[in-house]
Specification:
The protein is mainly alpha-helical. The chain is built from 13 helices and no strands.
Length: 256
């Protein structure tokens, strides 16, 4: 069933704004033109902000033709919408892995695509369903493995790592988080995360999720280290909110 949906998405790729434009194929004016300009400028933050605008208004992004009604089914909060988003995530990840130079700018769009896929999977998993989050886990695990195996693309693996931790936690599979983090921990022994080069939003998220998992696992020393790093990288306005999350999680662990 999933394969059938993917074939339909690829067949209509020329008419689906995200699947077409996010891989940098559309030319002309409007969204696609701006997307290509930002890619040419290696402007990852600009691309992230541009992608953010698509969550507010999809309609103007679609080309006017007689297939719009069919395409709309692939871009909304539906199973086809999730597959379209995962298709984009895999495409962007492939381009990230294929490039031989200047790839760090691609991390911010990767962050957006990975998070958007998870948000959609969570929305679709209502009434106790797990199917769509498990589908997202399937794709994320594959991407994480590929990125982690390439030592020059492990920064991208951190993006997927964060989404896997969130997904496993929501599915009640906290033990799986430990395996993912063990892989990241082993790689970090040889090359530390550089807060100057990496997006701070990525590192704050990683350290917070890592610290939160360590709290739940009873590893107080590691939890303290990771959560302190997360707080240190947070903007002053966000530190209070993060600190309240940390205290809440700590109280929950003590109570349990």
């Amino acid at each position: 069933h999933t394969l059938h949906i993917e074939h339909r998405i690829v067949r209509h790729a020329g008419h689906i704004w995200p699947a077409w434009q996010s891989v940098g194929l559309m030319t002309g004016s409007g969204f696609g033109h701006e997307f290509l300009q930002l890619c040419d400028a290696y402007d990852g933050i600009g691309l992230y902000n541009l992608l953010q605008t698509t969550t507010k208004n999809l309609a103007p992004r679609l080309e006017a033709n007689d297939e719009v009604s069919a395409v709309m089914a692939c871009t909304g909060e539906t199973e086809e919408g999730l597959e379209a988003t995962l298709y984009m995530l895999r495409k962007w990840s492939s381009r990230y892995m294929e490039r031989t130079a200047r790839v760090r700018w691609m991390l911010m769009p990767l962050l957006w695509l990975a998070a958007q896929s998870r948000h959609l999977a969570v929305k679709l998993d209502k009434d106790g369903s797990r199917r769509f989050r498990e589908r997202m886990v399937e794709v994320a695990r594959e991407l994480f493995t590929k990125l982690q195996q390439d030592k020059d693309r492990r920064e991208g693996a951190l993006v997927i790592c964060c989404e896997l931790i969130r997904l496993y936690s929501s599915l009640g599979q906290a033990s799986q988080c430990g395996f993912v983090l063990a892989t990241v921990r082993a790689a970090a022994k040889h090359e530390a995360f550089d807060p100057v080069k990496l997006p701070k939003s990525l590192l704050v998220t990683l350290y917070f999720l890592w610290g939160k998992h360590s709290v739940m696992a009873g590893n107080v020393e590691e939890a303290d280290e990771k959560l302190r790093k997360a707080l240190a990288l947070c903007p002053p306005k966000a530190q209070g909110e993060l600190d309240s999350h940390v205290k809440s999680d700590s109280k929950g662990q003590v109570a349990s």
